[in-house]
Specification:
The chain is of the alpha/beta class and about 170 residues long. The chain contains 7 helices and 6 strands.
């Protein structure tokens, strides 16, 4: 490969954090912080999240645009989001240097997303755009497309001993 071919291949990579272990969203948000620290524009879509977790207000304060669906509703790219207009949301996604689709795999698995539209948004995103997907069980197309695929495996978790999620740690 020529140096130019290697450079082309190294832009706009796809990250996948999946599995039954803790840390998928945490890893994605850590990458968001790293990107913003380097002056990159970050957009985060959270598919199946309920209330704001602790990182959201800080990420927003630092300039990330965070869009969240309403819990229990089917996620539709043009509906059910806390944005001003459809155009605002779509433009934000297109202009992001880093696009994080948190719980995209879970929304796919639970049939709570327009699958064709999600797949198109990921696979046909701008060439220079970095993208992160999180999932409990990753669909085959996500695994096949990912440049980074990291499986989080749970060996032990406080839930198993009856310890509830704690603010600032699990959310």
């Amino acid at each position: 490969k020529t140096k130019g071919e290697m450079t082309m291949k190294c832009t706009g990579l796809l990250h996948l954090y999946y599995g039954d272990g803790k840390g998928k969203t945490t890893a994605a948000m850590g990458l968001a912080l790293r990107a913003m620290g380097s002056g990159k524009r970050v957009v985060i879509l959270q598919f199946l999240k309920g209330g704001k977790s602790g990182e959201v207000p800080l990420l927003e304060q630092l300039g990330a645009k965070v869009y969240r669906g309403k819990a229990g509703q089917k996620f539709v790219f043009r509906e059910h989001f806390n944005y001003t207009t459809n155009d605002e949301w779509l433009a934000a996604c297109q202009e992001a240097d880093l696009l994080i689709l948190d719980e995209a795999g879970s929304a796919w698995e639970l049939d709570m997303v327009d699958k064709a539209l999600l797949q198109k948004a990921v696979l046909e995103r701008p060439a220079e755009q970095e993208c992160v997907l999180t999932a409990h069980t990753a669909p085959k197309w996500m695994l096949d497309a990912a440049d980074y695929a990291t499986e989080m495996k749970c060996h032990r978790h406080p839930y198993q001993r009856g310890i509830s999620a704690r603010q600032g740690i699990e959310y």
